[in-house]
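Quick one, probably user error.
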């Protein structure tokens, strides 16, 4: 069976699957306040279809699956999908990216079904600010979700913090302080110009040097470290003697594309070979034809760009509201 390799020789063993485009939040950097036109249910991949796709990909070298969204935990019985994926030969790692609002009640079922890792988005520790950024979210529910996931053995948890100038940059120190006595891995993420009018993005964009500046001001000794398992795009550091680590994810200002090993599948069944590329291929047509599906994945990989230098061109498309450019909630990050 042919390996999932692109035209630059990069082997792809990791797929990010969006299980829904719906979400129970409306984060300012991700969705418009009024929500979006969500795909009708019959356009969304069923758990059986997702499983069929992975059965085709596993013999081609797919090893890691990350479930994302929209908010994956709003999809009914997500633990059942986790169980179905964990039964596929060759899949070694199943992870979830979530806002954790509904995690408290689902953590145990997910862990029991075979979930290995969890990444949680949390942009502020202050209740009023969290509510403002997410347009109505309750930070206490997220904190409960983190506790529940830790209690069932899903630690170490990665926390994703999108840094926004003048909005949450004064909390960098508090987030890093959390890593000192908890096995948490905080990753500060650069705000990405995706699915956005570029003006609002530019106003809030903050280069991640802000994080190293805060450490220097605090007089902390920072060490480079390997970081936790599944250490994807982040550069990792820790304060000497601390339990956790923190990392920087620079999708905009850095290129971690040289070692890219990721494919994406949208909730409505489109392969996206790159987060920052608008080409898409519909796999649903081939759910009953494994050879055609395998060929489609190889075709998508054949057109994968070397990196996202096209980001600027894409931004121009966004200014003219080209409908093929999806929002983060539709791609899954
Ligand atoms: N440009 C770019 N950004 C990515 C890529 N993968 C993840 N990101 C961004 O990195 C941030 C964190 O993503 P997560 O969903 O937590 O996953 P991750 O850190 O890549 O996953 P693991 O390495 O498996 O833990 C999100 O804002 C993603 O959009 C990628 O391939 N390219
Ligand atoms: C689209 S969300 C989907 C999963 C889940 N709803 C959550 O928020 O974790 C996946 C990741 O994308 C990140 N994200 C969304 N829009 C972003 C943007 N414009 N810039 C940087 N990261 C973004 C979120 O912070 C989150 O960590
Ligand atoms: S970042 Fe996640 S939680 Fe926030 S609106 Fe987007 S999909 Fe929903
Ligand atoms: S921008 Fe595209 S090529 Fe670069 S790491 Fe992300 S998905 Fe891979």
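Nope, works fine. Designed sequence:
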């Amino acid at each position: 069976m042919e390996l999932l390799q692109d035209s630059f020789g990069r082997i792809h063993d990791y797929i990010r699957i969006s299980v829904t485009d719906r979400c129970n939040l409306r984060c300012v950097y991700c969705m418009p306040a009024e929500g979006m036109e969500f795909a009708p249910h019959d356009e969304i991949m069923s758990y059986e279809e997702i499983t069929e796709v992975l059965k085709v990909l596993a013999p081609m070298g797919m090893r890691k699956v990350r479930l994302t969204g929209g908010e994956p935990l709003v999809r009914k019985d997500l633990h059942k999908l986790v169980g179905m994926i964990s039964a596929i030969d060759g899949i070694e790692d199943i992870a979830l990216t979530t806002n954790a609002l509904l995690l408290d009640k689902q953590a145990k079922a997910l862990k029991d079904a075979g979930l290995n890792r969890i990444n949680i988005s949390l942009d502020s520790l202050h209740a009023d600010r969290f509510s403002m950024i997410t347009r109505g979210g309750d930070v206490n529910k997220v904190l409960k979700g983190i506790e529940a996931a830790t209690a069932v053995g899903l630690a170490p948890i990665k926390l994703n913090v999108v840094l926004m100038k003048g909005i949450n940059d004064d909390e960098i120190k508090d987030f890093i302080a959390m890593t000192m006595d908890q096995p948490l891995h905080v990753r500060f993420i650069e705000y990405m110009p995706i699915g956005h009018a570029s003006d609002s993005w530019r106003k809030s964009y903050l280069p991640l040097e802000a994080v190293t500046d805060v450490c220097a001001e605090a007089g902390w000794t920072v060490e480079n470290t390997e970081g936790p398992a599944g250490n994807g795009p982040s550069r990792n550091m820790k304060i000497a003697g601390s339990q956790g680590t923190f990392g920087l994810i620079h999708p905009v200002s850095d290129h971690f594309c040289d070692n890219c090993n990721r494919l994406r599948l949208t909730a409505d069944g489109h392969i996206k070979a790159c987060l920052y590329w608008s080409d898409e291929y519909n796999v649903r047509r081939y759910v009953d034809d494994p050879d055609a599906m395998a060929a489609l994945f190889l075709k998508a990989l054949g057109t994968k760009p070397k990196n996202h230098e096209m980001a600027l061109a894409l931004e121009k498309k966004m200014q003219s509201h080209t409908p093929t450019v999806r929002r983060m909630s539709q791609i899954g990050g």
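The radius of gyration is 19 Å.
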